[in-house]
Amino acid sequence: MDTIRVSTVPPQRVVSLRAQIGSFREQGALWAELHQFVAESGLARTGPALMVLHAAAAPVDVEVCVPVAADARVAVHDRIAARELPAQTVAALGLAGAMAGVAALYPRLRAWIADNGFAVCGPSREVYVRIPPPGCTDMSAYDDVEAEVQFPIREQDQ
Q1: Positive or negative: CA dihedral 37, 145, 56, 68
Q2: Cβ neighbours of residue 146 closer than 8 Å, sequence gap 6 or more
Q3: pTM, to two decimals
Q4: What is the pLDDT of residue 136?
Q5: CA-to-CA dists, residue 36 to 9, 33, 42, 46, 120, angstroms
Q6: Looking at the chain, which runs of residues are DSSP E strands?
Q7: pLDDT tens column, 12-21
Q8: How far is CA 148 from CA 29, 74, 93, in A?
């Protein structure tokens, strides 16, 4: 998981909750609200949960997402929306280990993008391939996760 790769991610329908928060540690309440909505709505997850990072400076602008079927019926909600994340070419770097290590992937990935003639062209994503289940309060469970940071990219001269 130490290798940076370029790939195309397909479009993906998600239910999402976007909010501005004071720090990344405040995501837990957003995830709890979204997972509760998914469970109460009877929606089936079709892939790993992910977070779209719209802005990293405080206030942090995050969108927590759970993939659902393209034809899933999603009830109207004042804070949660259904939308399609677009297909994108991304530079991606994975992590197997402690969730705290995700932050270190960002500067490494940004440097690789710049050094290889690419530019970032949208918000990054953190894809949570394997993480503790919703509601897990055992913080040691977050010492053994699989996650991937993705930046949408384009060639620099485009």
Answers
A1: negative
A2: 1, 94, 95, 96, 128, 129, 130, 131
A3: 0.91
A4: 75
A5: 27, 5, 10, 16, 33
A6: 5-9, 12-21, 50-55, 60-67, 80-85, 88-97, 118-120, 124-130, 145-155
A7: 999 999 999 9
A8: 22, 27, 6
